[in-house]
Structure formats: structure tokens, C-alpha cells
Amino acid sequence: MNLNDIMQIVLFIAVFSLFAYFLGNYMANVFSGQKHLLSFLRPLEIFTYRMLKIEHEHEMGWKEYALSVGIFSVLSIILLFAILVAQSWLPLNPQKMANMPWDLALNTSVSFVTNTNWQAYSGEVSLSYFSQMTGLTVQNFVSAAVGIACALVLIRGIIRKHDPFKAADLGLGNFWVDMTRSIYYVLLPLSFILALVLVSQGVIQNLNPYITCTTLEGGTQVIPMGPAASQIAIKQLGTNGGGFFGANSAHPFENPRQFSNFLELLGLIVISAAFPFMYGNMSGRRRQGYVIFGAMLALLVAGIAFAMIAEYSHGTMEGKEMRFGKAGSILWGVATTATSCGAVNAMHDSFAPLAGMVPVMNIMLGEIIFGGVGSGFYGMILFAVITVFIAGLMVGRSPEYMGKKIEAPDVKLSMVGIMVPSMVILIFSSVAVLLPSALASRANPGPHGLSEILYAFSSGAGNNGSAFAGLNANTVFYNVCMSIGMLIGRFSVIFPVLALASSLAGKKTIPVSEGTFPTDTLLFASLLIGVILIVGGLTHFPALTLGPILEHFVMLSGKII
Amino acid sequence: MIALSYLFFITLITGLLYPLAVTLASKLIFPARSNGSLIKDGDSVRGSMLVGQEFKSDKFFHGRPSCSSYDAMTSGASNLSVTSAVLKAAVDKRREEWSKAYGISRIPEEMLYASASGLDPEISPEAALIQVERISKARGYGEHQKTRLREYIKGKSVPKGISVLNIPRLNVVEMNLMLEGNGRHD
Fold first, then answer.
1. How far apart are CA A220 and CA A215, in angstroms?
2. Across the interface, which of B11, B38, B177 has its CB nearest the CB of A216?
3. Do B117 and A251 touch (CB under 8 A)?
């Protein structure tokens, strides 16, 4: 590790924090319906509601909101599945890509709708431009917008003042309005700008057929083409992570330079990092936002430091690109798994054992270290609820968060959202380990093979999408099990979060008193981090011991497997 | 059914309008880069400046090991772990080949380990300098040309742009284009 590497990390943290601060304030204005930078697009927004007959003044209760999320997601899966299995009959297919087999299409559509973007296929040899654009790019946008929308509901539930004349369950917002604003005012403009800047760095964007060329030495090389930049921009910004090409952001056409790499890194974290600031702004209690941001940042920095040391001690250049080097690869690997992006610019499978453990752990902790856009924030609030509950038990105070009393149902809902994804990881991994056909998919034997399986199901349940990519996941077993895992991982958090929002919205706001445990202090941030590490550690430490930790000691003993 | 009409409408906006707008804008502003930074030789295309190519002849600079032999249709990595016996065997073989070819024991790390994409076009200045002797011999260069080649490499190794984000490295395709006396590209 040299000074340059450290400077690169410091620069990254400084720039994304600064951007996130301003973006958070901007988003607060957008989502509370105030004047903002892009207010001139308001007629377009209203036109959209009129044309689609959306009653945008209508406020939904949590059940109606959840139903809208559910129906919209199911329809999205069906449409995407239909496009993928029928792509050979659809336009914009210059390479004559065949229809996708059903299990791979199911996996791919669930994967993109749940914001996971796990890829059991390689884009350049399996997808038409039509599938990439109208199928995948669309889900990159809307799955991110769904995450933002659900986080907004939770924020509204927390900050809503109790109104005796209003039904307790109402006033959580309108799903279609939240979606539209997320897309029109946040995701689309940022993506458009980022896409163009990426093209300026050499990322391709065209609809040309592939080019067969004679290389300088006289060999033959087929060069893939396609509308890549437009998809890569939103894949980063929406914490989606599904690459246009199989090699994802390691591919020279997807991430050609160090500057494009820096921009893509910023993209994958900036919206998630803006959420705590937006929350502080909307609630009028900025310190509450800073505390959440601080806890996330502390966990991110710890992960980067640990992985850097591990990689510089035992790592190699295997599976890394020259233009990113070790530091650029590790920084990205930690950031892409702390957020639920999952795009990769190096192969995590070939990281040193303990450096490769950091990405898995980031996902296992529940994708709350900034996490996915929206989803990282609401995941973190679940932990905050558990933390005030535990703190209340320890000091004998009645637990409350942001002036709302935390009661048994709230704690139960939070626990469901935290525990179910972890159960998915452990149960599916144990099933895979017991099935010889599933074991056959491993690229590496021994403890690293277990890590590959653990990583896969963590990535699915955490809706991350990155992988120890040696695992051949394009089998019926993995395609189907991963689909189930991704669905549970997404909706076992979203539905409890919406219910929790409704429960909190119906409560009276208690004035701050001597008995209030303050949640805007360094003490609370430390407790929050402690709870996250203890819950995540207790759940996953045994499995990690048999995977990366065991492999680390095998490596130290000088053995190869 | 709002959900269905919303899905179709948003598909139109984000799935057609948005990518087509980006395509159009990039065609106008960055025509060469949006098309893949292609290397043109008259009417024919000889590759892309960004995508590595396989070089085996002594007359060219050689790039990093690639798990797909620089086939852009099967791009990817070995995904082998640090403790893998398969990886160790591959690295040992490459080390032996290099020490035999150049008579050196200290081999730049990137020449022993395969890249992530299999298409990495770049190597370190160190790895380029080692190859100068071999290339000069194959091309029949005199001392003067050899020195100029070394100076070219050193000149290219200076980091440009934001220096924090820069690792000194050289593009193998670009260097080989120069060797062929054909520096033209988009």
C-alpha cells in the first residue's frame, strides 16, 4: 500500500460525502413537494398522472402501498421474462441472439426486478439490444425507484404527527407519485449526465452490429457493441450492478479508465449516502441523519481498511485489471458490497481469503452500510429500532425513536426484516452443500468452494448481485433457488418496513424528556454499530469460519488445494 | 389497471427514449468513442484501442495472460483462489517461460497473473522495458532505435490527469501500432 492508494480512498470518501449532502437536501425538496432545481419538469409529471389516470392527491395506507409494490413487481417479472424468452422474435437483435431458456430467464427477471442483478448469463453472448434496453435498463430504473419509494414511506411514518381526525393508517404517500418523482427528478437526470460522461471516457453507446476484425498480428477478434453507457450509468446509480457485458465493470468497454472507474464508484454510493441527509432534512432533525451516516461510514471505512491490509499482505494481480490495481479493485469490492450495487471491477473470487471475506460480510450484515438506494436506509432504521429497544432494556427506559414509542409489534416487524434474509442464506447454502449436483458447480475445492456457495446465496438474499464468479450458477438448481432467495430477501424486508411505517405513523409523538434515550449522539452511533456487528456476527460467524477464515489458515500453512 | 399501464409507460421512457437519447447525444458529441475507439486501417478495422489483443510474435509487445486468449466473446477470468493448485501451476509455468525468454528472475506481477476481463490492454512500464531487447532483435533494430523505443516507453509512463488516480501503465495495442508505424486511430 502506498500514499497514492490512501489518497485515492480519502478522495473517494470526501467527494461522495459532499455530493451526498447536497443530493440529500435536493431529494428532500423533491419528495416533500417543494420547489427544487428541476421544478420546471412539473408539467411533465402532472401530464404523466393525467394520462395514466393516477389520482396523485390520493394518500395510500400501508396495505394499499404494499399491494401496489407487489402487483407492480409481479407484472415487471412477467414482462421481463416474456421479453427474454421471446427476444429472437423481437427487434434490435443484430447478433440474432436466441431465446433465453426458462430457468435462466426466470432467474434474470427476478434478479433485475428485486434490484439484485445477479447474472448467470453473459450479456454480449446472450442478450439482444432490445432485451438490454427495454428489459434490463427499465428494471434498473424501477427497482431502484421502488427502493426509494419504500424508504420514503418509512420516513413519513416516523415524522408524521399524530392527527386524531385522520385514519391512523393513511398519509404514507402515493406509490405512483413516489416512483415518478424518483425517476424524473433523481434517477433519469443523473443517469443521463453520467452516461454521457462515461461515453467521453470511452464507454460505448451505439446500436451497431458486432465488428469482426483482423488483429495487428493477423488473428481474428469479434468486438461486441451495444447501448452500454446508458445502462451502466443507471446500474451504478440505482445500486443495481448488472453489467452490460459478462466481465461487468472490469470490461474495458464498460469501465475503460481510472477516471471512469472513479465516476462509477461515486455513482454506486451517492444516492444511498444521500438518504441519511435527506432524512435529517425532512424530519427537521439533521443530527439524526448525521448519526446514521456516521455509523454507515464507520463500517465502510473499517471494511476498506481490513480488506486493504489483507489484500496487500496476501493478494495477487489475478482477476484484476492494470488500470485499477490492487487498491482500486479492493476499494470497489468493498463499496459495491457495502451498498447493494454488486457491479465488480475485479474478480472477488481471486481476492486474498480475508479480503474476499469483507464483501461477503458486508452483504451478510444486511446491506445497510449505505446499502441499496432506499433499501439500505430502511434496513438501517430496522437496526436503529432494535438498538433503542436493547438500549431501553439495558438502562430501564421505555424505548422510543424520534419521539415514537417502540412497542412489541414494531420490534417484531424489525426482527423479521433483519432475520429472514439471513435464514435464506444459511438454509439455501446448507441445502447446496448437501447436493452433489450443486457442489459440482464450484470452481475451487476446499473451504473456498464453500465461500463461493455462501457468497452466492448472500448475494441473492441481500439483493447485491456480485459473486465469487467461479461458481457455475447457470444450472436449474441455482437459477431457481436464487430466484426464491432474491424474492424473499427483497419482500421479507419491504413488507415489514411498510407495516412498521404504518405502526409508527399511528403513534402520538412523545415530547423529549429526561427519560428519553437520545438517538442523535455518538453513544447511539456506537451502540448501533455494536448491534449490527453482534447480530450479523452471531448469525454468520460459524459459516465464515469454515469458509474464508479456514482458507486463510490453510494459506498461511503454505498448503495449496 | 394502473400498474400495467404504468409499467408500459415507464418502459417507453426509460427503455426506449432514454437509451436512444443517450445514443443520439453520444453520436453527436463523441462519435469515435461511442463506437468503441476503433483502430481503422483504410476501410478495415484492426481492433479497438481499449480492448487487448493476443500477441505471440517476437516482433510485438506481449500483453498480460488472458483466460480467454483475448477472445472478446468469452471474456472473463480464472476465478481461482489464492490457495488454488491450478493457479499455482499456471503461474509457475508463466514464470518459467519468462525467466527462460528474458533471463530474469524478477518478473512484473501482472505478467504472471491473468486479468479480470481477459481483455486488459495494459502492462507496467517495467514489463514493457523487459521486452525491448527481444523486439529489437526480431525487428533488426540498431542501438539508436532501441534507445528511442526505451525513451518512448519512459515518456508514456508519466502519469497524466489526476495523479492520485493514476497507475503508470502502457497500452500494448497502442505500442504495437506504433511499432507497425501506424499510429492512426479514432
1. 6
2. B177
3. yes
Grid coordinates belonging to A246: 459478462
Averaged pLDDT for residues B24-30: 97
The confidence score (pLDDT) of residue B168 equals 87
pLDDT value for A190: 98
Considering CB atoms only, which of B53, B80, B110 is closest to A215?
B53
Residue of B2, B3, B165 with shortest CB distance to A258: B165
Taking CA–CA distances from B175, the nearest residue in chain A reads A216
* Residue segments in chain A with a per-residue pLDDT below the cut of 50: none
A380-429 pLDDT, tens digit per residue, is 999 999 999 999 998 888 899 999 999 999 999 999 999 999 999 999 99
- The candidate with the shortest Cα–Cα distance to A471, out of A439, A424, A430, A434, is A439
Q: What is the DSSP string of B6-67?
A: HHHHHHIIIIIIHHHHHHHHHHHH-HHHHTT-EEEETTEEEEESSS-----STTS------T
CB contact under 8 A, A317 and B113: yes
Residues in chain A closer than 8 A to B44 (CB atoms):
213-214
DSSP A300-357: HHHHHHHHHHHHHHH--STT--TTTHHHHHHHHHHHHHHSS----SS-GGGS-HHHHH
Please report, as a single letter, which amino acid is at residue B124.
S
Neighbours of A50 (CB within 10 A): 10
pLDDT attached to residue B163: 64
List of residues 6+ apart from A446 with CB closer than 8 A: A551, A554, A561, B83
Rounded to whole angstroms, the Cα distance separating B2 from A52 reads 7
Does the pLDDT at position B185 exceed 90?
no
